[in-house]
Amino acid sequence: MKRLYDVPDGTVVYRDGGPARLVEPDATRMPAASSRRGVVVSYRASKSFSYESRHVAKDEVLEEDDPLVPVVLSSHPGVLLVTVSRGGRSDESGIDFRPDLVDRNFELRISSGARATIEQVLCAVAGRDLETGGYLYSFSRPRYRGAVVDKASDPGPDSRLRANGVFLSDPERVESEWGELSRRALDHGLRPVGDFHSHPGGSGEPSDNDRRAWARALEDHRLTYYIGLICTRSSDALGWQFPNLHPWIARGGPKGVEILRARLID
Questions:
Q1: Can you tell me the distance from the alpha carbon of 104 to that of 233, in angstroms, rounded to the nearest whole number?
Q2: pTM of this prediction?
Q3: pLDDT digits (tens, 9 = 90+) for 165-216
Q4: What does the CA dihedral 88, 137, 43, 258 come to, rounded to 10 degrees?
Q5: How far is it between the farthest Cα atoms of the chain?
Q6: Phi-psi region of 127 (alpha: psi -120 to 50; beta: other; left: phi over 0)
Q7: Label partner for 253 (CA 20 to 30 A): which of 50, 182, 198, 261?
Q8: Which of 42, 49, 44, 40 is nearest to 15 (CA)?
Q9: Distant-in-sequence, close-in-space partners of 53: CB < 8 Å, separation ≥ 6
Q10: How far apart are CA 79 and CA 71, in angstroms?
Q11: pLDDT digits over 104-152, tens only?
Q12: Domains in the chain, start-ordered, CATH in brackets?
């Protein structure tokens, strides 16, 4: 690790060969960073960046049990110094598709209410060979340990369903039709963290268009991870009533945006 320069206690310095990125302590968790040596505290990232193969989004809180934090803890009081690989932004040509990899640390959980909405959306076009889908919402940002999907949406009022793709309404347009309770949830932190869509043809792997859309959404929503859920028809007689769910995540990686499989926890 390189010590770039001394900074006030509680400031975290990241360097990728270019300008240093400053990360301030998370004031919501503690009023000031500890000045004791060897004490790991909680920090909020001021910019997005990638460390090794892990993307850290702007405003993400790095907590004591985050495996990144103890690795980079400096002996300098209150200062963390790490070397990072590259910035968190990438273009469409920087997508690294890794269908052979599963992020074992990332566990995706979907609430019963969200599952019911997904099944209703899929059944609404059952038998018509059209792709459909919606957004996945959570009260918490997805982090390296995983995410919980608290709510799912329909495609939206001006969505377009096609045999080879679905164009969802903007999240704001979808949310504008929600009832009072759901809109109140938005005021309390509910946010889109992913999307789901069907593949009537049966493939559980994302298409090129899917991967590009997820990579854009990762940056647009300024997330550490973006969840992509592909739904295929069950092989038994129940069909779309109990679909097969194929979870994927988009995250920052050393070659740009990395897309790989995730684990779905029932």
A1: 25
A2: 0.67
A3: 899 999 999 999 999 999 899 999 999 999 999 999 878 999 999 999 999 9
A4: -30
A5: 66
A6: left
A7: 198
A8: 49
A9: 253, 254, 258
A10: 13
A11: 889 999 999 999 999 999 999 887 889 999 999 999 999 888 999 999 9
A12: 12-87 (no CATH), 95-265 (3.40.140.10)
3-state secondary structure string, the chain?
Answer: CCCCCCCCCCCEEEECCCCCEEEEECCCCCCCCCCCCCCCCCEECCCCEEECCEEECCCCEECCCCCHHHHHECCCCCCEEEECCEECCCCHHHEEEEEEEEEEEEEEEECHHHHHHHHHHHHCCCCCCCCCEEEEEECCCCECCEEEECEECCCCCCCEEECCEEECCCHHHHHCCCCHHHHHHHHCCCEEEEEEEECCCCCCCCCHHHHHHHHHHHHHCCCCEEEEEEEECCCCCCHHHCCEEEEEEEEEECCEEEEEEEEEEC
* Single-letter code of the amino acid located at 131: E
CB atoms within 10 A of CB 141: 18
Structure token digits, residue 20? 């240093």
Structure tokens at 184: 């109140």
Cα separation, 45 vs 24, whole angstroms: 7
- Separation CA 139–CA 63 (nearest Å): 18
